[in-house]
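>> received
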Amino acid sequence: MYDLIIIGAGLAGSTAAIAADHEGIKTLVVTKTLLEFYTEDELGFINLRQIEEKIKLVIKNSRCVSFKNKSEAMGLDKQIVSFAVEQKNGQVDYAKNVLITIGGGPVDFETLTQKTIGGKIKVDADQKTSVPGIWAAGEVCNAEPKTSLVYAGEAVKAVLGVKLEKNKQTLTKPLT
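>> returned
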């Protein structure tokens, strides 16, 4: 079981994968298309080529982040202590947390997360949704304004939140 499954590997998902690798979080990235960024960095703060090079290093060298390229997530179900992410090919992976970073259109997942009228996922200031363990970042959620800098920041914030939650779970286990 993974600590985190990231659905989508555009700018937000790729940035989240880099952060998860840096933080040592056991992560699976499920994406239809790897390293395809559809955003312009209008502020000039993010070098998309550097992110692309960094994610290539994570793909090649990471001990804790795995990638399923050309794999489309079709379902997201809450289990007793985890989430099941079903891919189009029927394969199912399990994780304690899920970060949804898929692109611009309304989210098709039939989850319990609250959505805006436009189909965007509602998140709080920490990128948490209404379902504990499901996070969202990038175009898929309701935060404004939307720039590439915001996408990247949301993704890193969500990954750090997953790490904090993981550490809380570890700290609250009774000593034996």
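>> The chain has a mean pLDDT of 81.
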